[in-house]
Amino acid sequence: MKPLKPGRKIILLVWVLVMIGLFVGVVTNGLIGWTLHDLNQERLRLVAQERRLTRGAEQLRRLSRQAQSALGSLLQLDLGPITVPFPDRELEQLRQELEKTSGVPDIGKVNNELGQQIHSLRRIWQQAVAWRADYRPVYLDSHERKSLRQVRHLLQKLRADLEIFEGRQRLAEARKIRRWRQADPATADLISRELLGSGSQTWRRSLDAVNTELVDLSRMIEILAGEDRLDQLVDLKDNQLKPSLERLDRELRRLRSIGLTGTGELPADPVDRINEALFGRGYTIYREYQTILPGKGGLYQLVSRQLDLMQQREQIQREATRELQRLESLYPPLASLTQKRNQELARQAEHSLANGALNLFMLSLLTLGGFLGLGFLIVRMTKDQIAAMTSLRRQNELILTSAGEGVLGVNSEGRIVFINPSAERMLGWNNQRLTGRHYSEILPGKSGRQAADPIRNTLKKGDSYRGDETVFRRRDDSRVPVACAVTPMLDENRQIEGAVITFMDISDRKAAEQTLRRYYDRLAEQEKALAELNRDLERKVVERTLELEEKSRQLIAAKEELAHAEKLAAIGSLAAGVAHEINNPTAIIRGNVEILRARLSGDRETLDETGEILRQVERISLITGNLLAFARKQNLALSNFDLPSLLAEILDQVSHQVPTENIDLQLSPAPDLPPCRGDRERLRQVFTNIIVNGLQAMPGGGRLTITCEHDHRETRVRILDTGPGIPAEIRKQIFHPFFTTKTDGTGLGLSVSYGIVQAHGGRIVLQSEPGRGSCFTVSLPRPIRDS
């Protein structure tokens, strides 16, 4: 066999080297594929667990919010529809799904806590359902005010019975007065003593006391219906309602015992029916303990039950909030379990890759000998390649020298072994003076600080580093921001021999970012200013709308005032004609009756009848006089006078017209009140009419308060009584002529007063509320020189 030529030997050796490389490549690919297959299987298992945990965490948050919405709709005070169902089944399904997630540490603890929270929420939901069932009848009764209307009806019926009783008593006294007029002197004396006896006065006092108790009882019942505290509710029952009901029952018994028309005029047991409507059937009064034990039903039980249910609702809401917060607190543990799954996936990948690298390293060791031997054989044959490699190295250095980015090379000790001109220019060095120095001289901090030294970590562990914003130090100790990348240099044994640092100056980019940030800040300020301007415009629009609404209301009031004035003018013209037509026949009747009275004999009954005719004729004259006063144009005798003095005179004289017993009269003028200008006598008539009406509205007693105040435009007199008030439908007609609620009134007093005040350029305003009294405000303009 002929020996092979050197060229053929080289070719054969190359082919052997190629075959060994192919074999090693196939084995390497097989090892890598097996490692990646195992890694992928583990990754799929961990990803499935992570997805299940993520889905469970999101579903837990959604179901927690759904449970909160369901409880909120169930506990609505207006018993609105339940729009959101309680997720009982969904929570249980979530717990079962998490229970199936095996291989995850701490999942059992989270699942147990979830089961406890589901049980607590189910219990709270059942409590809320029971509360809604208990609250429904209480809400319906309170909403429709059945119990309150029943108590009001009983009080109104009792008032009606008392009015009938009073009417019959007065009718009986009127009959006795008629008998007294017709009786002889002896019998008349007995009848007069009977009329003036204590019995006649006693039933009046008892009736006034009953009416007073009814007013107080009505007020306390309204307070009871609107009470919002249990302790005050009990106090109202035992310390106010019970004594008032006892006094009412005592005065009713006294009325039945002293009634002049018989005891059957009043109901037998009105207080018992009121007590039953208030405290329910089967109520018990413990007089020794001064308390009332409520029975079944009644307004008191309704209000008490409603307050108790409100407390239950607040407790259920607190418990629900607490349990929902605990349920929400399970979301972070589930999220942390997901994070742990991701970390476990990373660890498994590192472990699999480390095993693969170890296998490849062992395979490399086995083939290293063959490669070294074959390499030794072809060393001589590759000498001619050294020159080409030297040329290539020179070309690489030229490329690095010409590069626009800065490039530094450091050895394993951290000494700079290479620097290109771009790096020298950026760092302020020249002529390769940085070569041989430690790389820490280009870092702003100390070389021992890990966070400020990305190069050290690369030299120590071989990790690559890339920073978008790193700071280097120039030779003049100034700072320059750079985008930096540090790559380790490894030998054939993967030992770290140094590192390559590439960086680029990003000062211009930083300046552009700052400029852009300032632009965004200015834009935000402009948006804020624009929003403030929008708010100012909206506020001005609202203010203008309110002004327009106020002007509209004033215009409507002026139109109503004009219509009322036109109506009064028409009625005044009619009243003047009627008064003139009535005066002539009235004068004829009066004259004929006086002539007839002079011609008749001294029969007492005849004289009484003619006297009654004369009194009625005088009443007709009074009415026609009021009609003429209403129709006559107000010619005012203006003068300055002291307003408080006029009001004090009226209060001194009013007791001759209306009884003022049990009435507290108060006059409170302002200390700096100036003189009032107007017709003193006409204004006396106005204030007298209003004060007399206020006193007549308080037959059982009360308080009449008169205050005087002023400003730069007008003087105001307020007359406030504590009577029963005026209903809304009557307040609209109270200044109309001939409208009155009195049996003996003409209905012209307030109409004439309205005309007098209008003639002064003023106005009368009525404010009243049933059960809380009435307030008349007379406003008179001040003279221009006083303002």
From TrEMBL:
The chain crosses the membrane at residues 12-36, 357-379. Its EC number is 2.7.13.3. GO terms for molecular function: ATP binding; phosphorelay sensor kinase activity. PROSITE patterns: HIS_KIN, PAC, PAS. The keyword Hydrolase does not apply. The keyword DNA damage does not apply. Residues 148-175, 509-568 form a coiled coil. Residues 577-784 form the Histidine kinase domain. It catalyses: ATP + protein L-histidine = ADP + protein N-phospho-L-histidine. Residues 466-518 form the PAC domain. PANTHER family: PEROXIDE STRESS-ACTIVATED HISTIDINE KINASE MAK3, SENSOR HISTIDINE KINASE. This is histidine kinase.
